[in-house]
Design a protein that fits this description.
379 residues, alpha/beta, Arc Repressor Mutant, subunit A, Dna Topoisomerase Vi A Subunit, Chain: A, domain 2, 3 domains, six-stranded mixed β-sheet, three-stranded antiparallel β-sheet
Amino acid sequence: MPVEQRELLTLWVRKDNASRGRDSLLKEGGQHRIELSEALCDWLLREGWINRKEKLVGGHWQWEVLTWRDLHTLKQLLGVGSRIQRNESRALLLEDLRQWLSGLEATDLPSQHRGLLDDLTHALSSLEQDTAQRVEVLEARDRWIRALYGWCLDERQGTRRDFALHAGQHTKSIGAGDWKWLEEHFDLERYGVSHFTPLMWVSGQGVLHWDERAVDLNAVSFLALPLDDVLRVKAVTATPAHWWLIENRTSFERQAQQLADGVLLAWMPGRPSTAWLAAIEHLAQFAPAPLRVSADADPAGVDMAWGMGRVWERLGLPWEPFHMGIDELHAAQQPWALNAHDKALISRLLASPDLPQALHQLCLAMQRDGFKAEQEGWL
């Protein structure tokens, strides 16, 4: 049986009805699969899986109702369970999701994402109430929920395609129906999943050139540029003495308002997307200068700063962590206790012989003292 027919037949046999009407089956198949539906019904009749009731329409015999002869066996061959089995699978999935959610702590999440647990709880309630939902849809939404939690835990930023790749096997892993469901239950933009054109926020020293046109960054306090446009930059003049990347958005805007001459400042959006990294590397090639990178004095911040440093290393340029050391950690007015995720990340970072000394010392201090801090408190 061709794959297309098998997929359609799997849809047809999900209900336990002994008989199915023509209109309902064609509707399940969709307008684009009417011919496939007719061919499938003929095949089922030839192979002895159904009886058909037909009537004469416009001089031609047309089937109106089919009756399954051995629906139980057909379901088994297709790997489709009975209603009881589906209900049992659904109950197990929901219980596993409840157990997982009950083990989460808001303090494990970055401060800007601590409302996520409330949203997860509401999403679970919605899944529990929708008793007509197919098991495979529930399985998929369980994956998306857990993937969103991991995305926020790692402080990732990116487009919907980036999130789909993170959550599934490819950039189109999440279908339109699931995106709509996610939109109804989560503020995706707030959680770093952008539906709109991805941007780079910059400020300070530098004139960016596109053929005959140019933008002087010094003309405004800061501005946002589409990543695709950044990748089309042909030259940078009035180049900076050094670059400065800041993780916290509030800190970025604060520093942009009082930026010293000679600095090209950019907001580093958490764990940047692949597209953002390509854009910043493209600019740095036209404006080669040392990098200062400022992230939170926490394990994720160390990991992010080191990742940006490696971009500069590939370009043969020096870099250093800036305003994210032991002094800032100890001076923090509102330190946060390390969670299990933090401790595991610190262990992985310290196990690397290539971790820069300043970041190594910060990790040791966090491990010893048991807390971390956010840069908004001092930068």
